Amino acid sequence: MNDTRLAIPRVGEVEDSAPRSAAGLPWIKVAGSYFVTEDGESWTPIGQNDAVSWPELNGLFRRADMAGVEDHLRWLKENGVTCLRLMLEYAQVRHRYFEKPQGRFVPAMVQLWDDLFRLCEKQGLRILLTPFDTFWHWRHWRHHPYNRNNGGVLDHPSRFLVCTDTRRAIKARLEFVVRRWSGSGALFAWDLWNEIHPEQAQGSADGFGAFIHDLSDFVRRLETSLYGRYHPQTVSLFGPELRWRPHMPLPEPIFRHTDLDFASLHLYEEGTIDDPSDTVAPALGMARIVGKALGEIRDGRPFLDSEHGPIHSFKDKKITLPEPFDDEYFRHLQWAHLAAGGGRWRHAVAEPHPARAHPRHAAGAAFAGRFPAFDRLGFVPACPSRRPDAGFRSRRRGCRLRRRFPGSGLAGSPRHDRAKRYASCRRCAGSGRLGAARVGSRHLSRHRLGYQRRQANSGMASEFGRLAEA
């Protein structure tokens, strides 16, 4: 190779090798509950999870099919996608490790990322980048270069977050990436750790905050010293862990860590989102979970669901959803995100990965272009109440979502505002237990949940379908 940029160093030598050219794309930064470019233009992250070993990007490796990859990225851009979430390596296969052995950055992988950043800059796409594929490196630990048996420093992945030597290796990898690619506006943000998990810290979440601070501060200081600014940061969590481990301090580092700029969850609600039997229940589950997540955020930072999909159907049951069902399921989830105030990514769950063949990204284009006059910078997302269709309350005092979505039961409708003040509960009034026909809406929900759910199913399904088709 004649490209001097590909003279790949070992750990400790990364500084001399790093190009620091600034790209033409403006950087993204946080503005209230949303994102803007450095130029002050509203920017919405709409995208999918992809991987460097999946069919559409596989042609980057050793430049096997650069034209095909560029066509794919152009197709995504034309269909409304603005951002891809990618892992620096994909450990499902053995030839996409970023280091091999540990401390040596693989030339073919560095070239792959050089090319990918260049193509994304050309197409106007951005990347949400996470440094490790924590799912597959756990499952394929016997092959991973960080494994002590393979010349690495770590004896077992259960100590990934607590091992001092491993922490130095993580920072060396981050340093290489920051010096080589952080100068590009194609880098939207850092997902500093994919699905942080207690099992990566010997069964404890007590050290999550300190771990996040250490990586966040390291990356932010380095980017600021090199470029005079830094990219937004987040850390993601497998959403069901919040319900499975309520005794652990998970919400604080995920939703409220002072070093992070936005919050991220991976939403795989059991029985609805992860294994759908219809397309409405997952949307209701999505709205419910997003509402709870927004309620955990105290400073108004943005919230993204950076993975969701029918993972249980695909991974455990070996079922690939029929395309018409999958498209409707996806559209409903997307509009539920919009209604609840969150942002979303789709995690691909089919074999082979079908994003190129499916028209589902047209729904993303509809999401981005549906409200051209909608002021996202002044918009405050609202939180859903306890009832599925009772409306969406603001998490900021004195603020309402003023936009009315007919049939969805969102706050701002006169019907919702009246119901919030009082409501008629014939069951209790008729029994004489309360002695009055006007009761609080929270009480009402205990008796009319079934009715409200049926109404929500009908209203949300018709509205999401109408908006998506439009």
Nutshell version of this structure?
This protein has helices at about 15, 55-60, 65-80, 105-125, 135-140, 165-180, 210-225, 240-245, 250-255, 280-295, 310-315, 325-340, 360-370, 415-420, 425-430, 440-470; strands spanning about 30, 35, 40-45, 45-50, 85, 125-130, 185-190, 235, 235-240, 265, 305-310, 345, 380-385, 390-395, 425, 440.
The CATH class assignment of the largest domain is Alpha Beta
C-alpha end-to-end distance: 50 Å
Q: Count all strands and give the number.
A: 16
Percent in helix: 25-40%
> β content, as a range?
5-15%
Number of helices: 16
Q: How much is the radius of gyration in Å?
A: 23 Å
- For the biggest β-sheet, the strand order reads 8-7-6-5-4-12-11-10-9
CATH topology of the largest domain: TIM Barrel
Task: Provide an overview of this structure.
This protein is an alpha/beta fold. It folds into two domains: 381 residues, TIM Barrel; 78 residues, no CATH class. It is built from 16 helices and 16 strands. It has a nine-stranded parallel β-sheet with strand order 8-7-6-5-4-12-11-10-9, with helices on one face. Strand 10, helix 10 and strand 11 form a beta-alpha-beta unit. Helix 6 packs parallel to helix 7, helix 10 packs parallel to helix 12 and helix 12 crosses helix 16. The longest helix is centred in the last third of the chain and has 29 residues. The protein starts with 13 loop residues before the first helix and ends with a helix.
What's the SSE blueprint?
Blueprint (H helix, E strand, L loop, with lengths): L13 H4 L10 E4 L2 E4 L4 E2 L3 E3 L5 H4 L7 H13 L4 E5 L19 H17 L2 E5 L3 H6 L24 H18 L5 E5 L16 H20 L5 E2 L1 E3 L2 H4 L6 H5 L7 E5 L13 H16 L6 E6 L2 H6 L6 H18 L2 E4 L14 H9 L12 E3 L7 E3 L19 H8 L1 E2 L1 H6 L6 E2 L1 H29 L1
Parallel strand pairs: 4-5, 4-12, 5-6, 6-7, 7-8, 9-10, 10-11, 11-12
Antiparallel strand pairs: 1-2, 2-3, 13-14, 15-16
